[in-house]
């Protein structure tokens, strides 16, 4: 049984805006990245899974419970971190998170204890007794994560958890998400439009665009299909390019760098052997990820259908409401 | 863990992971969540857990509404010092039956000041998505909030009656007789307080549910309690023969005047309140019930449809 099963899920706002368009995908436990550009339908999908929004048509189940009818049961087992600001400036973090823990069904004492533990887990200490209004963006994001974790959910839905954070804050937040997801095997779904961020912590990716599924696969398959290898040598790269092309690896020159389409581990071996054979000095051997837009174009062109779903051509981009 | 760690963390602001722990304790579910939200709302209505400034308005209004009771008890104690003063006690202007009228302004101000903080605040700071993604249903949320606020209004309204009762009983020459005399009046005051809290509390919450803007909600609540009352005043002035006398049922204050007159005056023909004499008593009770029902339905529908 997959953790989440989505069949032909469609959500329209009014008559003109289609946020989700017959989306079909299974999501397995793990840390799953939900990637797509702004307006691709990520937030809409998360809200439907929580039962916050009703789908226009189609089916979705979480823990084998139907989102339409078993919303209350699902929500007791799920933690949700919204994308937008959702904290009252006049409360302290402790009071607010403890209150929400009780809203999730925890007894008062347990709620207090869990709040202290979870706020410490996300890195808030003495400042948790201060009003949230005085917090920095990074601290607010941590409170948002804490409220999603306080009732120890089985599934964590994070909508753009690194929103508004500086690079160091992003790293810390991602590290925190990673540890939370791996230490106890809590299933996590992280929505983001930044592929570079999400691939650092995720075990699988679900890519959507204009409300349709582009691809759902373990992270490794994504990077194999989309990555490229940048090679730099001390000497003139022309000889290496010839050698690699001869070995069946199409290589392109980009200034001093040679770009090679990555095709599994074999590519690394071929490059290594070619460099050794020619007696060149290898300066750099680096895996390059494409930008998200490229990923989408590439997967549509080249990806093979996975068992979960077939990739589809992106429909005419619709302006999906958040 | 040593006490040093928190200080270090506060300085550097970095995330320290000391490990995430699972929770194996009881999960009490939806009913517990509803009860908790009810108590939380009741406490917030008096500013408890919301910092010092949030307590100013409710405590001031609570104090003001008790002043007539305190003053009357003091006056009663003074009168008794003079020979023959006992007979004058029932001539005092503030009694159980007139008390509601003398504090209605404070109750309305309490509703206008506090209701927008409960429903409006959740919308203003987008807290609804956090509530609605938990064990509660949307209707649970709405009902728990309304009930919590109604009980807050009930306590505000009832407290001065209780003071009046205690004062009179303690000043009475025979305490047992005092309890027997005033007990039924206090029981009526409890009923009147419940009707007031139900009607004014649910109506102000219904208005607060429709706007995240505090100023609009405050203006809306005051307008609802004042404008129909002006209409009712005009109707009363025009006399009882007009069909328009039904219009006074649109005014929450007039409806509560009617129930007050009904509760404290068993001989319904001898009413002190002019507006209340225009219609039979059951009209006012029915209007109060209809008002509460409408306000609750409107609020529940609002939160069923709102985008969280």
How would you describe the overall organization of this protein?
The complex is a heterodimer of chains A (322) and B (308). In chain A, a hairpin with a 3-residue loop joins β1 and β2. Chain A contains eleven helices and 14 strands. Mean pLDDT of chain A is 83; it is low at 298-322. A six-stranded mixed sheet of chain A has the order 6-7-8-3-9-10, with helices on both faces. Chain A has a four-stranded antiparallel sheet with strand order 2-1-4-5. Chain A has a four-stranded antiparallel sheet with strand order 12-13-11-14. By secondary structure, chain A is α/β, with parallel strands linked by helices. In chain A, 36% of the residues lie in helices and 26% in strands. The longest helix of chain A is centred in the middle third of the chain and has 17 residues, at 167-183. Chain B is an all-alpha fold and 308 residues long. Chain B has one domain (29-305). Chain B is 71% helix and 0% strand. Chain B has helices at 4-12, 29-45, 53-79, 96-124, 128-132, 138-171, 175-209, 214-238, 252-264, 281-305. In chain B, α3 (53-79) runs parallel beside α6 and α4 runs antiparallel to α8 (214-238). Chain B is globular and about 80 Å long. The relative contact order of chain B is 0.11. Residues 1-11 and 267-272 of chain B have low confidence and may be disordered. At the A-B interface, α2, α3, α4, α5 and α6 of A face α1, α2 and α5 of B.
Reported for the largest beta sheet of chain A, the result is:
6 strands, mixed
Give the largest interface.
Answer: A-B, 57 and 46 residues
Helix content of chain B: over 70%
Radius of gyration of chain A, whole Å: 23 Å
Helix content of chain A: 25-40%
| Broad structural category of chain A | alpha/beta
Name the poorly predicted regions of chain B.
1-11, 267-272
Low-confidence parts of chain A lasting 5 or more residues at pLDDT below 50? 298-322
């Amino acid at each position: 049984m997959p953790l989440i099963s989505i069949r032909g899920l469609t959500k329209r706002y009014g008559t003109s805006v289609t946020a989700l368009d017959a989306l079909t995908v299974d999501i397995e436990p793990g840390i799953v990245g939900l990637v797509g550009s702004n307006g691709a339908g990520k937030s809409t999908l998360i809200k439907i899974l929580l039962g916050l929004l009703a789908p226009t048509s189609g089916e979705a189940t979480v823990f084998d419970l139907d989102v339409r009818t078993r919303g209350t049961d699902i929500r007791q087992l799920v933690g949700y971190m919204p994308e937008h600001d959702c904290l009252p400036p006049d409360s302290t973090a402790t009071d607010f998170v403890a209150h929400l823990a009780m809203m999730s069904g925890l007894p008062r004492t347990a709620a207090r204890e869990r709040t202290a533990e979870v706020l410490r887990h996300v890195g808030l200490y003495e400042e948790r007794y201060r009003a949230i209004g005085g917090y920095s963006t990074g601290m607010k994001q941590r409170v948002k994560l804490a409220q999603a974790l306080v009732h120890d959910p089985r599934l964590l839905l994070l909508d753009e958890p690194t929103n508004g954070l500086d690079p160091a804050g992003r790293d810390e937040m991602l590290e925190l998400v990673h540890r939370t997801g791996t230490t106890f095997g809590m299933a996590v779904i992280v929505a983001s439009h930044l592929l570079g961020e999400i691939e650092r912590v995720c075990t699988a990716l679900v890519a959507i665009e204009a409300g349709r599924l582009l691809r759902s696969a373990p992270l490794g398959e994504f990077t194999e299909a989309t990555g490229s290898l940048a090679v730099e040598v001390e000497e003139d790269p022309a000889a290496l390019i010839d050698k690699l092309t001869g070995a069946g690896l199409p290589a392109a020159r980009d200034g001093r760098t040679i770009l090679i389409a990555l095709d599994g581990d074999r590519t690394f071996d071929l490059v290594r052997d070619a460099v050794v054979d020619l007696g060149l000095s290898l300066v750099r051997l680096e895996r390059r990820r494409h930008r998200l837009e490229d990923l989408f174009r590439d997967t549509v062109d080249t990806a093979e259908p996975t068992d979960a779903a077939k990739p589809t051509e992106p429909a005419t981009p619709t302006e999906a409401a958040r | 863990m040593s006490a040093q760690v928190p200080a270090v963390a506060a300085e550097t602001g970095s995330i320290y992971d000391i490990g995430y722990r699972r929770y194996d304790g009881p999960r009490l579910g939806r009913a517990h969540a509803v009860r908790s939200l009810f108590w939380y709302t009741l406490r917030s209505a008096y500013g408890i857990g919301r910092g010092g400034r949030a307590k100013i308005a409710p405590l001031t209004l609570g104090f003001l509404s008790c002043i007539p009771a305190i003053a009357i008890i003091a006056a009663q104690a003074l009168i008794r010092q003079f020979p023959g003063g006992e007979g004058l006690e029932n001539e005092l202007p503030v009694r159980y039956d007139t008390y509601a009228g003398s504090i209605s302004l404070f109750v309305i101000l309490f509703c206008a000041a506090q209701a927008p903080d409960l429903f409006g605040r959740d919308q203003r700071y987008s807290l609804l998505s956090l509530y609605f993604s938990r064990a509660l249903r949307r209707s649970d949320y709405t009902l728990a909030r309304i009930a919590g606020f109604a009980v807050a209004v009930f306590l505000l309204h009832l407290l001065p009656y209780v003071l009046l009762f205690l004062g009179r009983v303690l000043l009475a020459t025979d305490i047992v007789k005092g309890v027997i005399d005033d007990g039924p009046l206090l029981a009526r005051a409890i009923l009147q307080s419940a009707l007031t809290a139900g009607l004014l509390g649910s109506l102000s919450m219904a208005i607060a549910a429709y706007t995240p803007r505090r100023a609009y909600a405050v203006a809306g609540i005051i307008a609802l309690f004042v404008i129909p009352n002006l209409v009712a005043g005009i109707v009363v002035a025009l006399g009882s023969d007009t069909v328009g006398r039904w219009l006074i049922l649109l005014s929450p204050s007039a409806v509560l005047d009617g129930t007050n007159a009904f509760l404290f005056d068993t001989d319904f023909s001898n009413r002190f309140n002019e507006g209340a004499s225009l219609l039979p008593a059951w009209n006012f009770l029915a209007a109060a019930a209809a008002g509460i029902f409408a306000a609750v339905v409107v609020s529940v529908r609002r939160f069923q449809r709102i985008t969280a």
